[in-house]
Amino acid sequence: MSPKVKLSQTWPILLALIFSLSIERYALNTFGWQNDVSWHVVNGLWMVVHHKLQLTNTLTWTAQGMYWSDPEWLWDIIAGALYKLDGWTFVSLFGTIIFAALLALITYNFIKERKTGSWEAIILIIFATSLAPFAEMRPQLASYLFFLLALQALQTKSNKYLWFMTLALPLWSNMHGSAVLWACLLVLQLFLNFKDWRKNQYPYLIIVSICLLALRPGGIAPWFDFIFQQTYASNFNTIMEWMSPNFHMLPFLFSLLMLGIGWVVILPKATNRRDKCWLVISTVAGLVASRFLPYALLIAIVLIPKYLPLRRPVPLPFPKKVIKLVPVIWTLFLAVYLTLYAQKPFTFPPENGAALYLSEHHASHIVNRYDWGGTLEWYGLSPMADGRNIWIGFPWWKEYLDMYKGLMPVSNFLERVAPTSEWVCWSPNTPVAWQMDQLKGWHRVYSDDKAEIWERVKGLPPHS
C-alpha cells in the first residue's frame, strides 16, 4: 500500500471489496456448474487416475478413439484433483480464491492511486456485478486473473515484470487459449512505440512469447482450430453480440454501464494512446462476441483509477481502532460465507434432471444440445456432442448446427446423420422440441421446465 494513503481512509473501498466478493461467490454458486464445467472435471479425473494426458476422445459416441489433445489440460488436472479431494466443495473454493485474488488486485490499484472513496466503491461493485454472469468454473476464470496480471505488467513498464509475465506464459497457455492475448498486447505496444523499437524489449518479448505459446499439446494447431471455429459459416455466432436479446438482460446492462463509465472517465483525460486503444478495441470486441466482454471489463477497471479525479477522503464513521480489525473481520467473513456454501457449492445446471433420468435408464446414442454434453458425461453417459471443437470439419457437425438453428428438419438429421440414435435430449419450447413431439417412431418420456427427453419406440425401424 502506498504510504500516502492511511488505512483509515480506505474503508469505503475495503467494504466494497467484501461486498464484491460476496456477489461473485453467489454468482459462482448460481452459474458455476454449467456448460463445459463437467467435462473439464471428468477429463481431469481421468488424467489424475491414469497419470497421463488424455490424447483420444472417450467422451462422445460420435468420435470414439479420435485423436484429441486437450489444450486446457492443466486446468482440468487441477479441477479433477480438487474434486477427488473433497468433491465440488474444493472446486468451488478454488474459484472463490481466484475471484478473491482478482478483486484484491483491483482494490490495490484503487488504493495505490489514492482513489478509495464512495464513488470508487460503487464502481468496484458495478464491476463485480457485470462480471458475475461469467462466474463459471471453467478455465476462463484463471485466464481473467492472468489477463489482469498482464495488464499490470504493461502498466509498470518494468522489463522485469514484462519478462516474468512472458516466462509464465506456458502456465496461462495450458489453462486457456486466451494466453494469445498477451502476444496481441505486446504487438500493439510495439506498434504504438515503433519509432523506438530498437530501444525497447518488445520485439524480443514477442518472439519468446510465440515460442512459449507453442508449448502445449498439439502445438499451435489448436489456435488455428479456434480461429476456424469462430469464422465457421454455420457456427452459432451469426449475429453481433450487441444485437442479441441477451444484451437486454440486466447482467449485460451492468456490463454496458461499466464500459460506459470507462469511456466517460478515461477517453476525455487519457493522454496515453495505448490506454485509448485498449478501451476502444476491447469494447468493440465485447460487443461482437460475449467471450471478449470480461476482458473489456478488466481493461476498464484497471484504467479507471488512473483517470478518476482525486477527492478528499470520506470521513471514518467509526473509531480508528476499528479499522485494525478489518483483517479479522475479513477472515471471519470468508470462513462463515464459505461454510454456508460447503454443503451446496453449486446450483445444479438446468439439464441435471434430464441427465439423471438418462443415467437411470442407461441411455446410449443420445442426441443432445451441445452445451449439455458435459453434464451428460458427468453422469457416465456418452452424448453426441459437448462443448469441445474436435468435430470441426466433420460433415455431420455442419448439419448438427443447421438442425440446432432450425435450418434442417430434425427428421432429416436423425435419418441421415444419426440413424442409430435412441434418445433425444433438448430444451422445451424450441423448434427441435416441437418437431420431436410430431415425429413418428418417437415418444416423449421426460419433461420439466428446463429439459425434455424423447425415446425411440422399441421394435420400430427408424422413422417408420
Automatic annotation (TrEMBL):
Q: Which UniProt keywords apply?
A: Membrane, Transmembrane, Transmembrane helix
Residue ranges of the TM segments: 90-111, 123-151, 171-192, 204-228, 248-266, 278-302, 322-342
Is Mitochondrion found in the keyword set?
no
UniProt protein name:
Glycosyltransferase RgtA/B/C/D-like domain-containing protein
State the organism named in the record.
Desulfosporosinus acidiphilus (strain DSM 22704 / JCM 16185 / SJ4)
